[in-house]
Write a structure and sequence with these properties.
The strands form four sheets. The protein has a three-stranded parallel sheet with strand order 3-6-7. A two-stranded antiparallel sheet has the order 1-2. A two-stranded antiparallel ribbon has the order 4-5. Helices cover 36% and strands 21% of the residues.
Length: 173
């Protein structure tokens, strides 16, 4: 399988390589350090330090800025284990957007969301699209696919069946 980004073939050895190229993922099964704060999770791998100590004010400011890019108002001082699934998903999306991802892959993002949270997610996806972010949306829920996607690729048992404009496929396909 060849992956093209900006018309050039790319290969990623790990998620860090993908993110450095502008490709991020919002996983179905969210994975965080639940005992750390939202800010610490958003700054993992780049924790600002001074004299060996984490600069908590800088962590808070960076996290607030990242969350603001997607309109989220979650307190960066809260620990991840106190957040709802929808809030955890927002943190993951803020991290992707804050890392300047130009492509975001959403893997079954509504599988654990209530209807209102799913609607907010759809609005956020529309906003990201309007900013020029490419969205790859993986789901078994055809109504969501038809609502959100311009083009649909159908896979069956891991095999490519078809790729067509959404307007050419109905929800039964």
């Amino acid at each position: 399988v060849e992956i093209l980004l900006d018309g050039r073939p790319v290969q990623f050895d790990d998620p860090r390589d993908a993110l450095a190229s502008g490709v991020a993922m919002v996983h179905q099964e969210l994975a965080f350090c639940e005992n750390l704060t939202v800010g610490e999770n958003l700054c993992l791998g780049q924790l600002p330090r001074r004299f060996g100590f984490v600069q908590r004010d800088v962590v808070r400011r960076r996290a607030t800025e990242l969350l603001a890019t997607i309109g989220a108002t979650i307190d960066p001082a809260r620990t991840m284990d106190t957040l709802t699934v929808a809030e955890q998903q927002l943190v993951q999306i803020a991290g992707a957007v804050g890392a300047a991802a130009r492509v975001i892959v959403f893997d079954e993002p509504t599988s654990s969301l209530a209807r209102d949270d799913a609607e907010r997610l759809f609005g956020l996806i529309a906003d990201l699209q309007s900013r020029g972010v490419t969205i790859l949306y993986v789901s078994h829920r055809m109504a969501e696919i038809h609502r959100l996607c311009d083009e649909i690729t159908v896979l069956r048992d891991g095999q490519h069946v078809a790729t067509r404009p959404a307007s050419e496929l109905d929800e039964a396909t």
